[in-house]
Amino acid sequence: MKKSLMGLAIAMLLAAPSMFGAVNADKVRKELVTLPFYSIFDNLSFRVDGSTVTLMGSVTRPTLKSSAANVTARVEGVEHVVNQIEVLPLSPNDDRIRWATARAIYGQTALNRYAMGAQPPIRIIVKNGDVRLEGIVGTEMDRNIAFLAANGVPGVFTVENHLRVERGRSVS
User: May I ask the CATH architecture of the domain 92-165?
Assistant: First the structure.
C-alpha cells in the first residue's frame, strides 16, 4: 500500500511541470479575438503543440500580426510562438470589395443575425480580388446564401466558401 502511494506521489511530481506548464487554448483564443482592430476582414487561428503556439491566418494590418504574437507570448505556459500569419497586400480595390462583400452578406435578411455581437462569425478575406469566406454558420442554407451574396459583388474574381456548418450550437 505504501509503495503504491509513494509511486503515485512520484508520478504526480514528475507530471507537475507539464500540468502547470500546459498552454490554455481558451486563453490564447480570448487574447486573439480581443485584439484591437481585429475585424471581420481578418481571420486568426492557432495550434498548440506543448508549449509552442503556431499562429496562422490572414490580417489586413501588419500591426495586427505582431500584436497577435505579442499577446500570445504573454499567455501562461507559452514558451515559443511561431508566427505564420499572412499580411494581406494593401489595395484600394480589395478594400472596396471587402466592404461591398460585407454589405452583401450581412445585408441578407437570412444572415443579418450574424452581424450582431462583437465578433461576427463570418470572416471575409480578400486578396487580389479573390474572396475567401471563413467561419461558422448555423445551417447549410446560410452557408449557401453567404456564398451567393459574395459571388454577386462586382469586381470579385473568385469566391472560396470555407464556412463550416456547426449543428447543435446557436450562432446568433
Answer: 2-Layer Sandwich (3.30)
Q: Looking at the domain 22-87, which fold is it?
A: Histidine-containing Protein; Chain: A; (3.30.1340)
Q: 0.90 cut: is pTM over it?
A: no
Question: Which three cell numbers, joined as nine digits, stand for 20?
Answer: 502547470
> What is the 8-class DSSP label of residue 40?
T
**Over the stretch 36-87, which tens digit does the pLDDT of each residue have?**
999 999 999 999 999 999 999 999 999 999 999 999 999 999 999 999 999 9
Q: Which three cell numbers stand for residue 124?
A: 471575409
In this structure, the number of other CB atoms found within 10 A of the CB of residue 55 comes to 20
Beta-carbon contacts of 46 under 8 Å, excluding residues fewer than 6 positions away, are 25, 28, 29, 32, 53, 54, 55, 56, 72
